[in-house]
Amino acid sequence: MAYFPLEELRKIETPYYYYDMSLLRSTLQTVAEQAGKYGFYVHYAIKANPNHKILETVRNYGLGVDCVSGGEIRAALDAGFTGGQIMFAGVGKTDAEIELALDANIKCFNVESVPELENINAIASRMNRMAHVAVRINPDVDAHTHQYITTGLKENKFGIGLDLLDEFVAKALKMKNIDLCGVHFHIGSQICDKEPFEMLCDKVTDVLAAMEKAGALISIVDVGGGLGIDYNDPDANSMADFESYFKLFADRLRLKPGQQLHFEPGRSIVGQCGSLITKVLYVKEGASKKFIIVDAGMNDLMRPALYRAHHKIDNLTSTSAVDDVYDVVGPVCESADCFAADERLPLTERGDLLAIRSAGAYGEAMASCYNCRKLPASIFSDGL
Ligand code: LLP
Q1: What distance lies between CA 383 and its chain's CA centroid?
Q2: Per-residue pLDDT at 149
Q3: Between the N and C ends of the chain, which has fewer C-beta atoms within 10 Å?
Q4: pLDDT at 54
Q5: Which atom of ligand 1 is found nearest the CA of 90?
């Protein structure tokens, strides 16, 4: 099992996120090495976890960032990333966000529609800037993942369909303050099979040929993020298989000289290094079930309530050799406030400390103050 410094953790007021920074560093080291083999560029998707200390650590390994709001651009700049390391995506960029991005001289806007392109051109012209643009393409590839985190199907709101690409390119090439230099794809998240990525590679090849035919000179090929992690056994698989992932793209995609391949992983970088640490308030015998009621709620970690996601739960303090089956629930006034149903755990009692694992991505980042609860704190293994 992962190492949790219990003596220190016991003293901290729960609930809080605990980050194993040595796991984060070894993950980043692996990503840098494996992507570096092929000269690929990696932009960490800030949305997974925008914590300042995490961003600084990511920056130390030479990665860039993928942002989806002005707030994320500011968080990146605060953490020391340069404009040239920032990609800016998102279906609904406001004028103020576009101005901020142009001011920061970001590497590329990932643009999702013709009206957005027209607006960026107008703002760039007013500011006397050139906006570098990648067109986000909806490749209609099924990522075989949860419907809420599938993004590359034609019925999703993201990107431009292949049928509208020619029109987009023709318009972009005529705009004075737009430099159309890239193509962008992202088919979904928590993808654990090779097949959707293989299909993506084939679509990318087709799109690059179409772009060339349409007269666009493409230097940035961005294939998004999406690599999944093992939520059921984070100790056996504490790191995603980055070696095979990058190799798949290296083997299957043939790029022209001068074309750079970019990736935007979020979950696979920070997911396994974070756990939500929570204390058992009560163990309650229901009519047909035993409930462990903990002091963390769905406001601290939304993924189980929102996606019915399963996160492994460890009891860090029980020494019992006997197991039982429990529903682990929070104190929030919603039936969805349930971290796990029928979870097998060692006999658990009031005061035990539980770790809800694999919560480094989309955990703290999605926390809210629902029920007037405090936002969870973040604790780093380095700082103990
Ligand atoms: N690039 C784009 C354009 C994205 O939309 C996303 C994620 C990523 C990169 C990073 O994907 P990743 O490598 O993390 O799979 N809240 C959900 C996940 C939402 C993902 C949204 N987009 C969850 O908790 O599962």
Answers
A1: 24
A2: 58
A3: N
A4: 98
A5: 3
Instruction: Find the mean pLDDT for residues 335-353.
Output: 97
Instruction: Return the ligand 1 atom nearest residue 190 CA.
Output: 15
pTM of the model: 0.96
Q: Please give the distance, rounded to the nearest whole angstrom, from the Cα atom of residue 219 to the centre of ligand 1.
A: 24
User: Is the model's pLDDT at 1 over the cut of 80?
Assistant: no
List Cβ neighbours of 297 (8 Å cut-off, separation of 6 or more). 330, 331, 332, 337, 370, 371, 373
Percent of the chain with pLDDT over 90: 90
Four-way CATH pick for 272-383: 2.40.37.10, 3.30.70.3040, 3.40.50.300, 1.10.10.10:
2.40.37.10
Cα 167 to middle of ligand 1, angstroms = 28
Considering only CA atoms, which of 345, 335, 324, 329 is closest in space to residue 292? 329
Give the CATH superfamily of 21-269: Alanine racemase (3.20.20.10)
For ligand 1, whether the C-beta of 262 sits within 6 Å is: no
Show Cβ contacts of residue 228 under 8 Å, excluding neighbours closer than 6 positions. 145, 189, 190, 191, 192, 240, 267, 268
Calpha distance 33→39 (Å, rounded): 10
- Of the candidates 48, 29, 87, 129, the one whose C-alpha atom is nearest the C-alpha of residue 362 is 48
| Locus of tokens 């539980």 | 354
Q: DSSP secondary structure string, 303-326? A: HHHHH-----EEESS---S-EEEE
